[in-house]
Amino acid sequence: MKRSPRLAIVAVVAVVVLGLGALAIWRSIGGPPWTPTPSTTFQIKLTGVIDVTSPTDLGQGDSTYRGTPSAPPQAFLIPATTATPEIVDRLHRTGAHVICVVPVTNWSSDIIDPGSSAWAGLKGPSSGGQTFWLNTNPAGPLYNTLINLMTEEFQVCHDDGFDAVAPERLDETHIPGLQFDGVPITSAGFANYAFQLTEIAHSLGLSIAQTDDPADAKVFENYFDFAIVNNCFTLHNCAAYTPYTAAHRAVMEIETSAPPHAFCPAAIAAGRTAGRYNPKLNGNLRIPCT
Known about the structure:
By secondary structure, the protein is of the alpha/beta class. The protein folds into two domains: 1-31; 34-288, TIM Barrel, CATH 3.20.20. Helices cover 32% and strands 20% of the residues. The protein contains eight helices and 14 strands. The strands form three sheets. A nine-stranded mixed β-sheet has the order 1-2-3-7-10-11-12-13-14.
């Protein structure tokens, strides 16, 4: 039987409409958060505001440790407090994703809304200079306030267009003698706090990185999406993050003192994305392994 041209046109239109409808529904509910792959290359700039017109800040024209041209970074790590939606958008236009660096265990001027009185009762011993450890004990009197503040911080990352969050200094439980009002921070209590951070990030459609804390990597890998580690070659603890590489999750290795030829072969063999960066993490030096 010969098919009517009009019926064919109607069928095509119906398919297109249904397709657009499905796309609209998918966008309305949101897809899974972006997560870096084990090969995702990156640039990090924690000091100063990233200059989206600077080839140096953007990691353009860099060479690998072998001296061959490297591709531009596929991800950028920048603080929430120095970013704007416009900066994040400009970085997205380079084809990269953007990771929001947020303090979660200490108060400093780099925290979002540092002048808020809500932080006062959470601040404890000095963590160096003008920074102070935060009371992350789930049994603490202001723990719900802390969770609300962290939710607000992650919400800012989401609203500014970031793709993921990197909570800084996930190592509070391993600080000798750290306690608040005579109550020490325990491993179990801190783990509970860390897991709540992953829930907050995922509820906002953001992936979240474990940052350092090698002692907890085996457990944390079940909750965090990837890892960002500092100087694991120098500190001889890179092997602690094997649970991530074994699960085909990204491990971004930042080295600030070792020469690239010393750590790059091992990082590549183990499946970590690594590079040599300026100790100030100011974006002025990037020698990626790949």
